[in-house]
From TrEMBL:
<dbReference type="GO" id="GO:0005634">
    <property type="term" value="C:nucleus"/>
</dbReference>
<dbReference type="GO" id="GO:0030488">
    <property type="term" value="P:tRNA methylation"/>
</dbReference>
<dbReference type="GO" id="GO:0031515">
    <property type="term" value="C:tRNA (m1A) methyltransferase complex"/>
</dbReference>
<dbReference type="InterPro" id="IPR029063">
    <property type="entry name" value="SAM-dependent_MTases_sf"/>
</dbReference>
<dbReference type="InterPro" id="IPR014816">
    <property type="entry name" value="tRNA_MeTrfase_Gcd14"/>
</dbReference>
<keyword id="KW-0819">tRNA processing</keyword>
<feature type="domain" description="tRNA (adenine(58)-N(1))-methyltransferase catalytic subunit TRM61 C-terminal">
    <location>
        <begin position="69"/>
        <end position="304"/>
    </location>
</feature>
<dbReference type="GO" id="GO:0160107">
    <property type="term" value="F:tRNA (adenine(58)-N1)-methyltransferase activity"/>
</dbReference>
<keyword id="KW-0808">Transferase</keyword>
<feature type="binding site">
    <location>
        <position position="168"/>
    </location>
    <ligand>
        <name>S-adenosyl-L-methionine</name>
    </ligand>
</feature>
<dbReference type="InterPro" id="IPR049470">
    <property type="entry name" value="TRM61_C"/>
</dbReference>
<keyword id="KW-0949">S-adenosyl-L-methionine</keyword>
<feature type="binding site">
    <location>
        <position position="188"/>
    </location>
    <ligand>
        <name>S-adenosyl-L-methionine</name>
    </ligand>
</feature>
<keyword id="KW-0539">Nucleus</keyword>
<keyword id="KW-0489">Methyltransferase</keyword>
<feature type="binding site">
    <location>
        <position position="140"/>
    </location>
    <ligand>
        <name>S-adenosyl-L-methionine</name>
    </ligand>
</feature>
<feature type="binding site">
    <location>
        <begin position="119"/>
        <end position="122"/>
    </location>
    <ligand>
        <name>S-adenosyl-L-methionine</name>
    </ligand>
</feature>
Amino acid sequence: MLDTDPAKKLSFNRSITNGDLVIVYERHDNMKAVTISEGSVLQNRFGVFKHSDWIGKPFGSKVFSNKGGFVYLLAPTPELWTLVLSHRTQILYIADISFVVMYLEIVPGSVVLESGTGSGSLSTSLARAVAPTGHVYTFDFHEQRAGSARDDFERTGLNNLVTVGVRDIQGAGFPDEFSGHADAVFLDLPQPWVVIPSAAKMLKQDGTFCSFSPCIEQVQRSCETLQTSFTDIRTFEVLLRTYEVREVKMDGVEGNESGSNGSHPCKRRLCSDGSNVVSSSISSVMARPCGEARGHTGYLTFARLKCLS
């Protein structure tokens, strides 16, 4: 879990203890979140792993099963948590999240308002960005979904950095108690333009605003409303292209045995005329785009509150 002691930086540089949340890594596309419980076991295709064997090991350790198979025990960083969390709604992924955190100028000590919470993917990264002295106030109209998000923040050790509220922000706006106190506001709502006037009241002078919308029509209406109280209005679409980089072996023919210089591992092959032909296996690194690349996720519209003249 995250170390959120105000006197310390967020860190995972400690040993795993009973009750900790760890990310069990089998391969880049197969990970799961596991809460350590002494006496419990994890069973997968690599064998049986005892939780008791994990206690006391540092995060990042390679641990073995009864069959000699292995997995890695990784710390539940926001990046990894985004990949393993339960999808109660469509979530934001790393490319959009990193862009949001940067463009909203979120730093330690910032106060951020968010609606809606959803699965809590963005909330987790926002919490790390504002730590150790800032705070994230996130709202969702769905009470059960908000409760599940609270449980997740408790598991990841972020409950003292994130407060989850149940409120229909699109219908009622943000609570008046936050008026003029927020450094940034983020909206992920079907009709964000309805909430923009409320968001403007919540922001400090020169505060920043962002809205995530899957459709360009939503962006157009939001931008029209933003012009009243905001400036520097910009919209982005973040597209991420992932490459697979791996080592491959290519077989090549080098001629007769006498012509081989011995620079590569060789195999002899006897031809029909009785001569020997030497073939070598050459290692090379190949990079190519992954077949399952993510396309359009949504549009990110940013704006800055106008300063009073």
